[in-house]
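Input record (one chain):
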Amino acid sequence: MVSFTECFGGLFSKRSTPKQIEPDSAIGGLLQSYPANPVQHPELNPELSKIASNLETIIAFVNPKSGGQKGRIVFERLKNYLNRENIFDLTKGGPKLGIEKHKNKNDLRIIACGGDGTVGWVLSVLDEMKLENQPSVAILPLGTGNDLARTLGWGGGYNNESMEIFIKKVIFGKIVKLDRWSIETNLVYSDQNDIEVKRSSDAKDKLPLNVINNYFSIGADAKIALDFHSAREKNPELFTSQAFNKIEYAKNYSKDLLNRSCKDMLQDITVFECDGISYLDKLKTLNSHSIVFLNIPSYASGKKPWKNEDGFEPQSYSDGKIEIVSFQTADFMLLQIGVHGDHITQAKKIRIKTASPLPMQVDGEPCFLQPSEITIELKNQATMIAASEENALISACIQTTCSYLCCSTNPDTDDEIASETEDEDLFDVF
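The corresponding structure, as predicted from the sequence alone:
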């Protein structure tokens, strides 16, 4: 798996070990035990205390269940750098409590520690709160795919990088805008062209999510993901290791490769319009088994389905356009070696109509959807932080004595993290 962004080594190799102090009473989901940090006790870490005002504007939401034990370890390590009132356990009330508590801070910066689903949760709560000054969001990736984190330079997973380096990336990272797309569904009961509309008792009336941050797809890849999730729901006790999960995913892919379960799915799509132009004939010519709508370039744990080429604008996650690519089932294996999908178009608004239940997935959450009319259009733009290793390093050199910088190749150490093996991405079976 691609590791977290390249580690620069221990930023402050001469710092002393933070001393433990007695905790105050806990508030809601806040930490109940913590070491001294540079904001409250600058004498214990004089280097970081020079940017204490920046640290006070950072809050962190941690999903301790993400990444095996890594979520819990990150939870503990953040205590060295942030106030205890600024670190929240997402399993205890979600992100709204913490955002509400700190929403009036200037230049509020949020660290979402978890998978892409955790990031989406934080962004959805920000939508609901409609804050006048939108906080910017950084990512400490603890999930499986981490495609949004990869896109914004945070890497494919946290792998014992120096937490000081990470915090400086949050402070000095580049502020960018991320397109977010609404996806609305309305059930279809009849078709004006007298096409039979089929329903299934196993199908859902709604998609699991109504906002696309990363990607949306119809067809084979969603079917493979749906079979895996269904098997895990039936026998969760079997899916306790990444090795088993990867084998199970490979089995589902192999089965679908042989059965070609979505080879006729285009017969069940009656409308496929992008910005008012029909692309249904083009999809049929390509004999598409899967159609993927990309808001970001990274897909399925870092694969790149879209290739910038003549006739299309360069792919961007902030241009108000979504890229659409087509695959056959066998193509997913070729993604591993850099093969790209067939380009359909780039669009600002998409309308799709189906006449039978089809497998679909939004940001990795799959379902089998009843015949529906689906509309995709731009919802808003989120304010994100793109990691900038160069800015973090330069800013650190300016603000601290260089004898503490750039002269050690050893990251922060932690016996528990060192003993962890990296999570293997399920999509690496392709």
